[in-house]
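[INFO] parsing input record for 2OG-Fe(II) oxygenase family protein
[DEBUG] input buffer:
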Amino acid sequence: MTVLPVINLEDALGGNEEKVADEISRACTEVGFFIVRGHGIDRKVFDDAYELSLGFFGRPAAEKNALPMRTSTARGDNDYSPYGYSALLSENAYAYTGKQGMPADYVEKFSAGRLVLDDAEDLPFPADAAGSALRAALKAYFAACETVSARVTELLTIALELPRDFFATRTDRSNDSLRSQYYPGVQREFLNDQGMGEHTDGTLITLLTEDGPGLQLRDLSGNWIDVDVPERDHFIVNIGDLMARWSNDEYVSTPHRVRLVDRPRQSIVFFKLANDDAVIEAFPKFTRERPAKYEPIRYETFSLQKMDALFGREARS
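[DEBUG] output buffer:
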């Protein structure tokens, strides 16, 4: 098991922001993963989301399958923010990186995007008291993740020598999403122990919590390293392809995967993205001594390329 850098956000109080910002930036450069604690989010927010998600995953298959994941909303906007349920083997993380013909993932997921913050939205939750409680729990969890991701990216602007509101003004309308996930323990009838195939995220940053082992990251030598945290209210944060591109690849979008273990595992993952009209152009700090590797691109175009690969859709020109 590897020891990831631990960032205590409480340490950024009292005039120590620059030190913490440098710690985050160094982690982004060296490993692309770090752990965040001291975020001030009530433990109950995590416990409610986990316990009510577990109750949902324990429902009969017919009830869950009646709420299939959809990638658009009734009013037609937010086209690629997922909502609803995905069964075992219904998704393939390899596809997200453009690899075809690879095995699918042994994981169940229940997804919610930014619209979960609006109680008036018609979203695919169970139409009973437990479903209402699950919706409220994921709403609170989503809001907590927005708060933590905003603080982490605000601190990064210090290390990146950017205006303090650089990320805030480019992510305030982003189609962020979360996925509550259930991995069964290894079973004899399974073809392999692939909970989720090797991939990188397409995000600005990703916030993950978990209640047990299974997550692995690939180090620079190509070795798979186990990653775990002692408590479900510790965030494992990783850099995504979006942040890597924005940083001219100075920040590392690290491949990772999930292996099934001898007991079930839950996790909740939050994907922080960017506004569709945000222009992704290498930060000046990382183009002073070498040219930009990529042409500027609107986030909407970048995102569509990623999502078309994930959902097996024909690429758009």
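[INFO] Residues 129-160 form the longest helix (32 residues).
[INFO] shutting down worker
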